[in-house]
Amino acid sequence: MRRKKTRKRVAPAKPPNVPKSVEHYLARVPEPARSTMEEIRRAIRAVVPPETAEIISYRMPAFKHGRVLVWYGAFADHCSLFPTAAVLQEFKEQLKDFATSKGTIQFPSGQPVPSALIKEMVKSRIVRSKPKKPSRQVQ
């Protein structure tokens, strides 16, 4: 019986426009969005644990501490923060002046961002992202 030759599976090549680092991503963002992105980044950095890594996830910058805490990205006329739907629900009253959807908040490019609010949302996300303690098993 003859065996069929098996092909090695090769991961598809990443498109050339995928940023390789957060700095690479930010370098490609035009003003005034770049300044807005840097404000958002500073606010997040101020509250995440020191060992938190900055990564590219879903082709946008993210902060990872065990798991991804938040993503943020630049778009045509705004910058977005993606702190998860649960965090948005918690802060829904404070976010009423901003465009939001299920898991994102939009900040107009070139306008000051609410750093204090971003910090509070990121702190909430950090608490929510901690693993739940396993329940005690009765023996």
Give a concise summary:
With 139 residues, the chain is α+β, with helices and mostly antiparallel strands. 29% of the residues lie in helices and 22% in strands. Strand 3 and strand 4 (78-82) form a beta hairpin.
Descriptive keywords:
139 residues, alpha+beta, Aspartate Aminotransferase, domain 1, six-stranded antiparallel beta sheet, globular
How would you describe this protein?
There is one protein chain. This protein has one domain (22-127): Aspartate Aminotransferase, domain 1. With 139 residues, it is an alpha+beta fold. The mean pLDDT is 88. Strands 1-2-3-4-6-5 form a six-stranded antiparallel beta sheet. It is built from four helices and six strands; from the N terminus they run ααββββαββα. It has helices at 22-27, 33-45, 85-90, 115-129; strands at 53-57, 60-65, 67-74, 78-82, 99-100, 105-108. 24% of the residues are buried.
Please write out the topology.
Elements: H1 22-27, H2 33-45, E1 53-57, E2 60-65, E3 67-74, E4 78-82, H3 85-90, E5 99-100, E6 105-108, H4 115-129
Antiparallel strand pairs: 1-2, 2-3, 3-4, 4-6, 5-6
Radius of gyration: 19 Å
Number of helices: 4
Ends distance: 55 Å
Classified by CATH, the class is Alpha Beta
